[in-house]
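Ticket #4471: structure output looks truncated?

Reporter: J.K.
Steps to reproduce: submitted the chain below (80 residues) through the standard prediction queue, then opened the result file.
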Amino acid sequence: MMLARDTDLVALSLADWLPDTIEALGVRTFPVPLDLEPLDLGMAWHPRNSADPGHRWFREHLASAVLSPAGPARRGACRA
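Returned output as attached by the reporter:
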């Protein structure tokens, strides 16, 4: 988003994703004027990382953030 703010480039994002950040950066948003097909997303990692607790934590939080655009911080799941 900062790159889009500081240049004449365009950035695509989920609707209503990070509204506070969008407002703070002064970025303008517009709906995409095209009917776009949904994207299939996936994750891949080396098998040696499958049982690693830190790697598992990261994968779970990444999946949670992607599946729920509000992200874990908005749901109270992230604690300092």
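Triage note (M.O.): checked the attachment and the full token line is present. The chain is about 40% helix and 0% strand.
Status: closed, working as intended.
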